[in-house]
Amino acid sequence: MMKKLEELMTKTLLPLSEKINRNIFLSSLSESFVRITFIILGISLIAIVGYWPIPSGWGIWLRETGIMTHVDAVLNASTNAMAIYISYSFAAAYSKNSGYNSQNGGMLGLLSFLIVSPQTLTFTTKQGMTEVVQTFSKNQITGQLDVTPINAFPISALGGRSLLVALFISFLAAYIFVKMSKKGFAIKLPDSIPPMVSESLSPAIISVAVVLVAFTLRIIFSYTAEGNMVDWCNFIISKPLSLLTATPIAFIFILTLASFMWFFGIHPNVVNGAISPLLYTIILENIAAYQHGTPLPYGTLAIVLGNTILGGAGCTLGLLIALLFAKSKRYKAIFKIAVIPSIFNINEPLIFGVPVVLNPIFFIPMVVSPPVLGLTTWLLTSLIKVNLNPLVGLMPWTTPIFLTKPLGSGLAGTFILAICLVLNTLIYLPFVKLADKQALEVEQAEEILKSETELSLQS
Q1: What is the rounded average pLDDT for all residues in the chain?
Q2: Which residues form the PTS EIIC type-3 domain (predicted)?
Q3: How does strand 120-124 pair with strand 147-151?
């Protein structure tokens, strides 16, 4: 049975993978995510230490000493600014794969993204707030908040929720750069001019065209209710999701959608942002009921949620375990790099390192795992009584599932988790074997070529 499945996947998925690799747009998109993997790995240790999941005075000490501010600064400069890196990386990869200067293309992609991004922050002054409080205390609201706008890029507009805009606008910039370069719009300077100078000046006319396009888009979206392209795109995605009710099936659908989008490189935060208010409401209402000794209104939902995102969007904990069976040097190395971050729910090293993004071999397990695990958990909770302590919902997001389950749902919850982990691994395993086989063949071919080259040099 397994052999037939491998043969079927070899016939269907490998040719599709080769087609994607030959497509400039898709191969550049995949490459752009792979090239930023080192950034994620670089901050993983800081994220784990800063949001240490063991309940203790560690977090309090970090805040009291002011160190937590600097931990957040590291995250703001990396994961919360991911759209900046992607806008450059994607445009650079597309330009390079099209045969043109990658740095020029990348800079135009980054420039275009920053142009269409929101660039204003507002804050309320102490005086304005005092006036409102004073008038409110007199049973009348006549005060007015003194809201002062300042020119700045909001961190919230540079991270995962902006990836879709970053990908679109950087591709548009790179596409214009490549097409206009082909048409001869690049300025040609004499050979006597140093290459560094000529290469930096050659796209001057093209940059004007790119800026005009980005400028036009900025103006167009300024007339929307959201006021900018980033917030408009997030509204279009999040509005339908915010209307969903707090039921297990609704959240299974949402988390499956997040995994689907993650496969295409769109960060789950785009989806998670829409359900965060509802999610916090669920946690708080469960805690309130728990404190009063009444049945939890969303107990089953909370248990289902935890098992539908094992290791992060796409349930990549199963992928990590499946990599234990890899034979190729490539996937063995990826396992070693990704194991610690994955345990603490940081799955970007796996998503970008394998890579899973736009890799057709991993599309099926990535999208199938969340609904299978979610529905399995839902079924098992109807058959097995699980006593949930909803306070675990307040633990840091880096808390490993191996801690939250025993602490939050005891032996019953841990048993269900074990079943889900086995299922999760079995779903990923045949696809990992296929990818590993492909990588192993490449490595063996390289070894043979290396040996033949050494023999020819000796003779």
Answers
A1: 80
A2: 9-431
A3: antiparallel
Burial of 174 (0-12, 13-18, 19+ CB in 10 A): buried
* 177 phi/psi in degrees, rounded to 5: -60, -45
Torsion sign (Cα): 119, 124, 126, 127? positive
Pick from 418, 357, 323: nearest CA to 28: 357
Cβ contact 362:431 at 8 Å? yes
Mean pLDDT of the 340-367 span: 86
Which of 69-78, 138-147, 324-333 bottoms out in mean pLDDT, i.e. has the lowest?
A: 138-147
10 Å CB burial of residue 415 (0-12, 13-18, 19+) is middle
Buried b / exposed e along 258-295 (16+ C-beta atoms within 10 A)? bbbbbbebbbbbbbbbbbeebbeebbeebbebbeeeee
Residues in the chain: 459
Q: Report DSSP state, residue 268.
A: T
Residue 444 pLDDT > 60: yes
The answer to whether residues 320 and 339 touch, using CB atoms and an 8 Å cutoff, is yes
> Is the domain of 177 the same as that of 284?
no
- Domain of residue 168, residue span: 91-118+153-243
Looking at the structure, tell me whether residues 238 and 384 fall in a common domain: no
Same structural domain, 187 and 254 = no
420 exposure class (CB count in 10 Å sphere: 0-12, 13-18, 19+): buried
Q: What is the pLDDT of residue 322?
A: 93
What tens digit of pLDDT does each residue of 163-195 get?
888 889 999 999 999 999 888 887 776 666 677
